[in-house]
Amino acid sequence: MKITKQDIIYSLYMADVEKGDILLVHSALSSIGDVEGGADAVVDAFLEAVGSTGTIVMSTLTGWSAPFDARTTPSAVGKISEVFRKRPQTKRSLHPVHSVAACGRYADYITSGHENCETGCGKGTPYEKIKELGGKIILLGVDNDRNTMMHSLEEEIDAKYLRTLDIPAPTYQHGARKFTLKKFPPGHRDFLSVTPLLRRAGALKESVIGNACIKVIDAKELYRLVMPLLTSDPLLFICENPNCNSCNWSRAVYGLKRFAYKRYAANHCDDKTCEICVI
Known about the structure:
By secondary structure, the protein is α+β, with helices and mostly antiparallel strands. It is built from 11 helices and 9 strands.
């Protein structure tokens, strides 16, 4: 059965989306099923659901092995975000890894100045602005492990496992050869553990679009509920899997285990840009 734009709009309203909302959307087109009109129909549905007074924002995350160009560097987080990025009326923020695309009432405000922020997801970034504006996080066919806002929480506590990396300078930094990423979030994190907490507290609304579950999270409530837990336990998002190199490293940084670089040298990864192996 084909999923139409009107089906998507109806499901969004059932999940507490309203006219005038500011939505940070994370999505997986393939999870929905057969969408009439494809990714363009999904984008149209979101824009229509929030109306002329609302704003749609999508993370357009990218890698760091080549210089970032806001006009041409594609989104690395799905077809819907890439189609949205290419819309003529869409604005894109200038950050070489954690850029966002936005369309609507607050698009200019949300995307402006990202290149001047100290970090990708913290103070002054689009992610903080969305939270302060009372925005909502949309997880369409994905869960909190794809929620970029979670990195803002890690930055807020200045987690020790966040890293500093030098990468090729983006094209808007004319003449520069490198860009320094600060508080960069490497590797795996167990963000899925907060989903039951949000559900019990009523901070998460759920519906279905085709075959996909859609979760709608109040950004301020996410902060209110999770920040006290993360402050008291900075390893809250670090998993207990003994075979997880990334989380093992994060625990070692906090002094809970003896630091052993040999563990990482022997993992035989051939990805030269791997965020875990560059440790």
